[in-house]
Specification:
The chain is α+β, with helices and mostly antiparallel strands. The protein has 3 helices and 4 strands. The relative contact order is 0.30.
Length: 104
Amino acid sequence: MNRKPVVRMAELEIDPETLEAYRASLKEEIEASLALEDGVLSLDAVSIRDNPNQIRILEVYADQEAYEAHLQTPHFLKYKRETADMVTSLTLMDVDPIAMRAKP
């Protein structure tokens, strides 16, 4: 089986009035995904320094099956439900890694 990693970038804009609640939900979802899903290799979230309601998430999954399974997990569905009214804009992009490394 050829397991090709799936790498995605999410660009979100969050209603500033809900930013702290959004950040808490996102942190909870990322922690659960990494703890409970072997196919989730990394999830990194950052905000734009001068515009903190703009969030970027880099997602790395073992393969397409792992990505699709992630979308059906209770913790992801909870995050999606809790944050639906907080997200004012969402762009999802499939991206090709150039160099991705982390120290052990």
